[in-house]
Amino acid sequence: MMVVQPVEWTTDDFVYVSELDSDHQKVFRNIENARQALANGTPVPQLGFLLWRLSRSLSVHLASEERAMRESRYEAFHWHQQQHHAGRAKMAHLLEIAHAKDTQSIAAALQDFTGWLRDHVGLADRMLAAHLRNDRRERLVS
What is the pTM of this model? Predict the structure, then answer.
């Protein structure tokens, strides 16, 4: 069976916008809960619930980010939103695979989604966070 590496949110994952960091911690925690369940041989229906919870936390987070981008008139909104579409597609694939009850495929899809999330937080969300911090400073001054 494919082993999915532990997923831990660390200080390296900070983007320094508290709402984003809090959401990211929750999404990472939900990934790790699903990973542990998969590694421990948890029955697929229970694993499916954990994946649904992960999907929900991702959905809430991405909607919050998109709202913040619109409100702050983020110039890279469409590019960032495309990144979200890719993440949503990976999450949908993971949920679809879970219905097949093939734990090897679930592990591979979870690993793929986790890689996307780490890349997304590391680049797209850092860029957005810098924009949001600057936008907030400008609002305080004006």
Answer: 0.92
